[in-house]
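Researcher: I'd like a structural prediction for the single chain below. Treat it as a standalone chain; there are no partners to consider.
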Amino acid sequence: MTAQIKAQNPPVSAFRSFTLVHLLPADFSGAGLDGFAEPELKDGVFKLVKKSSQTPEASLVSREIKAAFPFNELLLSANADLGVNGASRLEAKVKTADGWSPWFDFGLFRSGGSASAKGQGNKFGEMDVDILKLKKKASALRYRFTLLSKENGAALRLVAASYSDTTLPFDEAAAVKRDSDTKPLKLIIPCYSQMLQQVNYSGDICSPVSLSMVLNYYGKKEPPLETAAAVLDNQETIYGNWTFNTSYAGSRGLYAFLTRLNSMAEAEAYLSRGLTLIASVTFGPDEVKNSPLKKTKGHLLVIKGFDAKGDVLTNDPAAPEEKTVERVYNRKEFARAWLKNKYGTSYAVAGNLNAFLVVKTPYTEMFSMPPANSEERKKLIETQLLLGEPASILDMQGQWARIEAGDQKTTSVGGRDFKPYSGWVKLEDLAFFPPFKPDAVIKVKKSAAAFDGENKTLSLGTKVGIISEKSGKLKIITADSLTTEINAKDINRLPSKAAAPELRKNILAAAGLFLKDAYYWGGRSAWGIDCSGLINLTYRASGVTLPRNAADQFNYGRSVSRENLKTADLVFSSEKDKPKNITHVMLYAGNGRLIEATQDTGSVREVSFLEKFGLDFAKIKNGALVNGKKIFFKTVLK
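Model: Treating it as a single chain, here is the predicted structure.
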C-alpha cells in the first residue's frame, strides 16, 4: 500500500503482517484428516472431533496456503478441547524458492507439562522457541495439528497462522494514525500485579499474569500463579511461550490466537469488537514514560482501551501494586515499543469471533429462512452481501448460518433505531478476516479479478483493502489470505472527499450502469438489483452508507420540497391506498426524470415522472397523493 492512500490501513512499508484464522468447516477444506471426523456443530461451535477414544491421536494437515506476500517469520497457534491429560502439537512447513521445508515443531502443549522443541535449524531457517525465522522468504505454508487424547470429546476448534515480512521498514505515521471518528474505549479488565505474587520467579511471569487478567475478564476464574503453572515451557523454563499461552486460553473455552498487528487503528478496531489484546513490547531506557520498567528486552501487558487523545490504556503487570497496574502510555512511544520493535505481536483473546466473520465470495444471498430449492430461493431471498461485508453469526442450522449483516441496516416500522439486517446465508461463504478498514470501493459495474488462479468478478460497491499499488494496478487482500490485482481506475478512494456536486454526479453515473438490466427481487449486486438495492449500492460506490430497504431509506432521509430536489436525491412512493407503507424508491435524475429498478417492467429504466405517475413533475408537491399512492421527496446529501 503506497503512502498516498489516505486510509486506516497502513502503507505497504507498514503492512508487514497478516493473520489467517481457521475456525469454520470450509476453512479446513482440502485438509488431510487422520483420526478426525468431518467438522461438526457441537455446543454451538464447529469442531473437528476425534473419531474414537481407541485411537490415541488424530492429526490434520492443511492444504497449501498461499501467502498474501513473501514472509520471513511465522507464528502458529491453535485452540483445542484436550480433555484430562490431553496434549496437542503444532507444526508448520513453508515453501521457498528451494521448495518445501521439513516440518518445524512449535512444541507439545499440555497444561502444566508443555515443552518446546530444541535443535531445529536447517537451510530454510530455525525455530526461535515460538517464532519460525526463515533465511529466505516463503510464499506459502502448511500447518499440521496433532491431538493426543483418549477422550471421545477431544476436538480442534481453531488454528491461526500469522506471517510477517520483518525486512520492511516501520512507518510511524501510518502506525499511529487515528481516524477522526474513533471513540474512546475502555474494557473493565481486573488488575493483577506480577510483583505481588509470592514466588521467587515473580519477575518472569508477565505473560501468564496478563493472561490471567484476561481469563478473569471472560469469567474464567483463575489466580495468576495457576495460569503460570499451566503455561510453563518446561524445555526453556519460561512462562512466556506465546504458542503455549494462547493454547491454554483456548483449552479454557475461549478463542485465542497469536497475531501481529500493523497499526494502532487495527488494535482499536479489535477492541471495539469485544476482543482483548495482550501485547509484547521491547524498549530501551526511558523510551516508554510512565512504565514501571526502565527498560525491557521483552515484556507483556494487556491493552484494554484508548483514551480521548488516542493514548493507550493498559494493565501493566510489572506495576508494584494492583492500584497502579492501570497505566496510560503515549501512543507514539507505545507504537515504537510494540509495533516497531515487536512487529505488533499479541495474544488476541475473545469469547467468540463472530464479529470478525465476513463474506469471502464475490457475493452471497441472504434468505429469511434456509431455502430447500430454487423456487423457495425466489420467495425467501432478502438481500445480497458482497465480498468482505461483515456477517456475524447468530445461529446455525446444518450448512446455513443466520447472520447479522453489519453493513446493511434496517428499522422497526416508522422507527429510527437502525440495526443490522439479519437472515440466513451459506456457511461456506464466510471466513475470519482481520478488522482492516477498507481503502477503496469498486465504482465500475464489474471489476475483473483472479484469486488463486481462478477468474472472478467483483461487483460495484465492493469495499477492498489495498496492500500495494504499482503501474495502475492495486493488490488487494481478502479472507483466506487470498490476493488479486484490480485496475486502479476501477475504484473510488475511501473515505470519500468528493464535494456534494461530484458525489451526485458519481451516484447518477453508477445507477446508469444498471440501465436495461433485469429487475431481481432482493438483488444488491452486479448480478441482480431491486429498487432499494440500486440506491444502496450506487451510494455505497461513492462512499455513502445508506440502509438497505426502501422504508428504511425513507426513515433515514430528510424531506425536501420538489423545488429543492437535486439529482441523486430520492423519490419514494407508498403502497396503493396505504400511504404509510413505503414500498418503492427511485433516484432523481434531473429534469423531471427518474431512474428505478421496477417490477412494473421487470427492468432498470430511466423514465419521466409523467410516464411513471401520469402527472407533470412540476405540479407535484412533497407528500402528494397520486393514483392512491403517496409521493415523497427526500435527500441524504448536503
